[in-house]
Amino acid sequence: MEQTRKERIDRGLKVRTGGIYAISSGREIMYLVGPRLLLIVGILLVPLFLEFAPYWKRVVNIMCVYALLALSFDFLANYVGLVCLGGAFFVGVGGYLSAIFNVYLSIPMYLSIPLATVTGAALCTVLLLPCLPLRGVYFAIVTLMYPLLFTRVIEALDVLGGTNGITGLDGFPNQYVEQYAIIVVMLLSLFAMRRFVSQDIGLVIRGVKDNDQAVRASGINVTSIKALSVFIAALMGCFGGAYIAHLYMWAGISLFALDFSIIPIASVVIGGGGTLVGAVIGSFILVPLSESLRFFGTLRIVIYCAALTGFIVFKSEGLMVYLQRKYHQFERWVKV
Amino acid sequence: MFEARELMVFYENMLALNNVSLECEAGRIVGVFGSNSAGKSTLMYVLSGIMLDIKNKEEMRGGERISVYGRIFLNGEDVTALKPHQMAKRGIILCPERRRIFAESSVLENLKIGAYLSTRSQTRENIDYVLDLFPRLKDHLKRQGGFLSGGEQQMLAIGRALMANPQILLLDEPLLGLSPAYQEIVINGTKKIRDAKGISVIITEQYARPVFPIIDYAYILENGSSVLAGTREELIDNPDVKSAYFGV
Question: What is the pTM of this model?
Answer without folding.
Answer: 0.88
